């Protein structure tokens, strides 16, 4: 299977779908120009997402520079809504990398040889991503990956920035009690 490099956010989710504001419903527009033959959503049977054996995939394997281009969180929403929980690439656009993390997805950086081995697996082959051990476990080998410890904690515990703040709710309330909410001289 071919691994594409430089898939930008406009290819992940074209600009005409950015007017939608709900996080759900973007999955059908994911990779729109490649998935469909026309504007009537006639699927291209040769595109990998349209093959029955890959429709429920939760791991996407890509080339280098995945998610480069404009800053559009909608691209991460589309990947998540389609069902992808992990994206394995050679590198990521910085903003897109953080958008995936902020939306509960796990972007993993791996060298090309590892990605090519994983891409050659059959759809029935089991691939497991163990975030706690920071390992990809597959029939072609086990591969380690790096992740910032704070992001790892957030993903393992289903937390976002607000969830982290709520863990300190008692301390915040105690601090606010000691400090007035208005200016005093």
UniProtKB/TrEMBL annotation:
InterPro entries: 3-IsopropMal_deHydase_ssu, Aconitase/3IPM_dehydase_swvl, AconitaseA/IPMdHydase_ssu_swvl, IPMI_Swivel, LeuD. Signal peptide: none annotated. Residues 4-112 form the Aconitase A/isopropylmalate dehydratase small subunit swivel domain. It catalyses: (2R,3S)-3-isopropylmalate = (2S)-2-isopropylmalate. Pfam families: Aconitase_C. Pathway: Amino-acid biosynthesis; L-leucine biosynthesis; L-leucine from 3-methyl-2-oxobutanoate: step 2/4. One of its GO terms (cellular component) is 3-isopropylmalate dehydratase complex. Heterodimer of LeuC and LeuD. PANTHER family: 3-ISOPROPYLMALATE DEHYDRATASE SMALL SUBUNIT, 3-ISOPROPYLMALATE DEHYDRATASE SMALL SUBUNIT 2-RELATED-RELATED. Belongs to the LeuD family. LeuD type 1 subfamily. This is 3-isopropylmalate dehydratase small subunit. It comes from Streptococcus pneumoniae. The lineage of its organism: Bacteria, Bacillati, Bacillota, Bacilli, Lactobacillales. The gene is leuD.
């Amino acid at each position: 299977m071919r691994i594409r490099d430089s898939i930008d956010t406009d290819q992940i989710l074209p600009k005409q779908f950015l007017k939608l504001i709900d996080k759900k419903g973007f999955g059908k527009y994911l990779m729109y120009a490649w998935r469909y033959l026309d504007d009537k959503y006639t699927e291209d049977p040769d595109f990998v997402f349209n093959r029955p054996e890959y429709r429920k995939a939760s791991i996407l394997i890509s080339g280098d520079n995945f998610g480069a281009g404009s800053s559009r969180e909608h691209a991460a929403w589309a990947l998540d809504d389609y069902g992808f929980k992990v994206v394995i690439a050679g590198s990521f656009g910085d903003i897109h990398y953080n958008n995936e993390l902020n939306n509960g997805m796990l972007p993993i950086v791996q060298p090309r040889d590892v990605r090519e081995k994983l891409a050659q697996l059959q759809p029935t082959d089991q691939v497991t991503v163990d975030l706690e051990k920071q390992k990809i476990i597959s029939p072609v080998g086990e591969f380690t990956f790096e992740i910032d410890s704070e992001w790892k904690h957030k993903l393992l515990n289903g937390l976002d920035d607000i969830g982290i703040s709520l863990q300190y709710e008692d301390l915040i309330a105690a601090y606010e009690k000691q400090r007035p909410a208005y200016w005093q001289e």
